[in-house]
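Task card 7
Instruction: Convert sequence to structure tokens.
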Amino acid sequence: MGIGVAVVGLGWWGRELARAAGHAPDLDLVAGVSPDAGERTSFAQDFGCAAGPVFADALADPGVDAVLIATPHSLHAEQVMAAAQAGKHVFVEKPFTLTAASGRAAAGACRDAGVVLAVGHNRRLSSAAARLRSLKEQGALGTVLHLEGHFSSPSALSYRPDMWRAQRAEAPGGGMASMGLHIVDTVQWLFGPVRRVSCLARHAAAPVDIDDVTTALLEFDSGLTATLTSLFATALDAWLRICTTTGIYAARDDFTRLTHTAMDGTVEDLPLEPVDTVVEELSRFAAAIGGKGRAAVTPEDAIANVAVMEALAASAAADGAWRAVER
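Output:
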């Protein structure tokens, strides 16, 4: 018998976690949780498991060893703590929480309960990101001069006012919480902590009252600089460019492709092995539960990312004034 998991939140990403759980070694999907009856019925039919409306019922189920949380961002902290108190291991989608303080409290609850806590920042598990880290460790990047990151989606153009993702409280800094934070996690994993940020955010096109244009300047502890843009009302695109004295390395097409532009302008595709990053992060979660490794993204990593998100939102509220990242 494997590790029994319940998916909490059965929307688009909850279903993606359920799909991935079916391919991750040692995980058995046993339940889904959603207040929406239609979502529960569809999920139960598609994944062949039970589905109920009450989170506490899943926590009380002896067949549930772990929960995979894909609920509104504002619920993460309290749900993580409730799961920890029930002795359940926790995988929670990013952002881990909406504040670093609540993230520390949630992480502390898991630590005190002795349960594994993992957070879903899957881009760092891509072959492109792994290859970039290897190149950096080998010294092949030379001197890194500057980073450029971008993550956009047309999602907000179809949002309705009654959707949780359409609420400003759930989208600090516009698309940073749902999209840009993937870039933040990847660059901090590669190049260390961000020290301070300057950010501008505005509402331009979405039919709901959230910011859909967000752009920021980041400065790292090392002095490295980066620009980051997240757009909520244009075509889906995600990439990271690393500008160095040995050329420009670009993780393209949502981190599925890596190119190197040499100093003479020639462009080379670097070979990569495809990775299902969601299956990989859940596989590492399962391994950590079994004492055979550690989660791909630690609570400390996730809290550091939330701290950057908080600073970005605070800077945007202050018309781009520099804000230090809380430590």
